[in-house]
Write a structure and sequence with these properties.
- The chain has 487 residues and is an alpha/beta fold.
- 33% of the residues lie in helices and 23% in strands.
- The chain has helices at residues 5-8, 50-55, 82-94, 110-123, 152-164, 176-180, 202-205, 208-222, 236-247, 295-310, 315-320, 352-363, 384-395, 411-419, 431-440, 470-481; strands spanning 3-4, 19-20, 22-24, 34-38, 60-64, 76-79, 100-105, 128-132, 135-138, 169-173, 191-194, 228-232, 251-256, 263-270, 275-281, 284-290, 333-337, 343-347, 370-374, 398-401, 426-427, 447-451, 458-461, 464-467.
- The strands form five sheets. It has a ten-stranded mixed beta sheet with strand order 9-8-10-7-11-12-13-14-15-16, with helices on both faces. The protein has a six-stranded mixed beta sheet with strand order 17-18-22-19-20-21, sandwiched between helices.
- A hairpin with a 2-residue loop joins strand 15 (275-281) and strand 16.
- The longest helix is centred in the middle third of the chain and has 16 residues, at 295-310.
- The two termini are 44 Å apart.
- The model has no long low-confidence stretch (mean pLDDT 96).
- The protein binds ligand UAG, adenosine-5'-triphosphate (ATP), 2,6-diaminopimelic acid and magnesium ion (MG).
Length: 487
């Protein structure tokens, strides 16, 4: 793919125009002909690498205003906000995007909502994709996951490929990091949704307000007037977002149990394999047999239906499509039963509210004993560790504290930070051993939740990613037990 710098800048005249064959923010990845985006970062200053990038063949530089680039010999574009400009240029570089695109933000539930939105669109007969933590999921393009919200060049490359292959609907996860770093600023959005905001990522955003502000950018800056805003108003932060959406002239669809919710959840009744929900929309009551375990999944499913409805889907069809939803890998996923009759689930709860939500959902099935295996990630918000310990102590009958991607930190130190609020927790660092011990302890009617890694396929220790999957581990243990239903 090739454009001229002038074309990339929207037809602006450029002295000594050059050909641009790609763009990157990393000098180590510069290929001859690339535009190098030199950004100040959280760990190093990318502007230090401009000379390296030029040596590697960069044909132009985009960087902050006032950056001194001596004798560059290539055009230098200065911008007060180079991250945002980079996102806009990435969109123009690839040129095309699916016609209807929506984004989902919130501390928990983004992946679930994006996946359900894709599934509902597909049930309504559209070619659709979801993009996020699980990678790219669609009928025609499948990619493994990396970042939850991909870097602009990666994102626009895939959006262009989807559009060219006939995918006209896409649901994209908007992480707070992604919004803060303007990764989505080149995406043409028809609508966006907010699920909830609770504690996470304080290492990055510092304050709850800073975290909220990053998420609010989606409604306050990215959506254009007339676009749709689907907002969970059961969360107090949702009510603030609703005000922002009004001020911006967005079309609002409120969702939740709250009396002001336009798409309202009236009732939920747990069944062995899911739940029956009663929903009020447009003066009609709908009774829906939702084949998903976990009360929270009803909220995610309604937010997804809201996104489909606000972007033009027929409401009754969208709501009835919920009856055929498939669960999302690693989210409250039943893996099997132990020989003694205990049910084992794998879930991706990695925040205090996520853990609370999943343990409460499990409790609603009246288990004999509720047990949980979990840990906390290294190099991530340390403040959530004792909070997750406290939640586990409060809601589970037996807690196994283990490792979950210690990264550069000392795994034992992370476990002891959890233990501060979970004194009775059984500490087993080796995750496989912890899962095995927990499964061996199960008795008839017990439930075990293995939380925190969900679909992940690695355990990151230092810089090394060791192959590890909760789902595979549980299956192997159940098969070895002779349970015969482990996969
Ligand atoms: C904390 C964070 O979000 N960091 C992102 C940020 O990096 P940074 O600014 O901190 O990078 P840095 O290491 O200080 O380097 C500054 C710049 O110099 C460049 N560089 C560096 C070294 C060199 O030799 N040459 C060079 O050009 C780097 O490419 C970078 O552009 O900007 C980079 C692009 O410029 C991103 O790739 C990087 O994401 C890293 C990989 C990351 O792990 N992010 C995670 C935390 C993240 O975004 N997670 C969210 C999920 C959150 C959720 O689940 O809610 C996600 O969307 O996945
Ligand atoms: N609506 C919800 N409210 C509270 N907790 C939820 C909700 N939806 C999901 N969860 C919990 O959060 C976990 C992660 O769900 P999901 O992957 O959909 O969230 P996410 O926002 O995409 O997470 P990430 O930030 O890692 O991308 C689930 O496994 C469940 O434990
Ligand atoms: N998207 C989340 C995933 C956390 C998953 C957990 N396994 C961990 O490593 O902490 C994050 O980056 O905070
Ligand atoms: Mg996700």
């Amino acid at each position: 793919m090739t454009v001229t710098l002038a074309q990339l800048l929207g037809g602006r005249r450029v002295a000594g125009d050059v050909t641009i064959t790609g763009m990157t923010v990393d000098s180590r990845r510069v290929q001859p002909g690339d535009l190098f985006v030199a950004l100040p970062g959280t760990k190093v200053d990318g502007r230090k690498y401009i000379a390296d990038a030029i040596k590697a063949g960069a044909s132009a530089i985009l960087t902050t205003e006032g950056t001194a680039v001596e004798g560059a010999g290539v055009p230098v574009i200065e911008d007060a906000n180079p991250r945002r400009r980079y996102a806009e240029l990435a969109a123009r570089f690839y040129g095309t995007q699916p016609k209807t695109q929506v984004a989902v933000t919130g501390t928990n539930g983004k992946t679930s909502v994006a996946d359900f939105t894709r599934q509902i669109w597909q049930a309504l007969g559209f070619e659709a994709a979801s993009i996020g933590t699980l990678g790219v999921r669609s009928g025609v393009v499948k990619r493994p996951g990396g970042l939850t919200t991909p870097d602009p060049m990666g994102l626009h490359e895939v959006l262009a490929e989807l559009a060219k292959k006939g995918v006209d609907h896409a649901a994209i996860e908007a992480s707070s990091h992604g919004l803060d770093q303007y990764r989505l600023d080149g995406v043409r959005l028809s609508a966006a949704a907010f699920t909830n905001l609770t504690r996470d990522h304080m290492d990055y955003h510092r304050t709850e307000q800073g975290y909220f502000y990053a998420k609010a950018r989606l409604f306050g800056e990215l959506l254009g007037p007339g676009a749709g805003a689907v907002i969970n108003v059961d969360d107090p932060w949702g009510l603030i977002l609703e005000d922002i959406a009004w001020a911006r002239g967005l079309r609002i669809l409120t969702v939740g149990c709250h009396e002001k919710a336009v798409l309202r959840l009236l009732n939920q009744e747990v069944t062995a394999t899911g739940q029956i929900i009663e929903v009020l929309f447009g003066g009609h009551r709908h009774t829906i047999n939702l084949p998903l375990v976990g009360a929270f999944q009803a909220h995610n499913a309604l937010v997804a239906a809201g996104l489909v409805i606000i972007s033009g889907g027929e409401p009754r069809h969208a709501l009835m499509a919920l009856e055929d939803l498939e669960g999302v890998p690693g989210r409250m996923e039943l893996i099997g039963e132990s020989t003694t009759g205990g049910a084992v689930f794998v879930d991706y709860a990695h925040t205090p509210d996520g853990l609370r939500t999943v343990l409460k959902a499990a409790r609603s099935h009246n288990p004999n004993k509720l047990k949980v295996v979990f840990g906390c990630g290294g190099d991530r918000d340390a403040g959530k560790r004792p909070q997750m310990g406290a939640v586990a102590t409060e809601l589970a009958d037996e807690v196994y504290i283990t490792d979950d991607n210690p990264r550069s930190e000392d795994a034992a130190a992370i476990r002891s930070e959890i233990k501060v609020a979970c004194a009775s927790g059984i500490e087993i660092g080796d995750r496989g051993k912890a899962i095995e011990t927990a499964i061996a302890s199960l008795e008839a009617g017990d439930m075990l939740i293995v939380a925190g890694k969900g679909h992940e396929e690695g355990q990151t220790v230092g810089e090394t990613v060791l192959p590890f999957s909760d789902i595979v581990t549980v299956r192997e243990i159940l098969v070895a037990q002779g349970a015969g239903n482990g996969g």
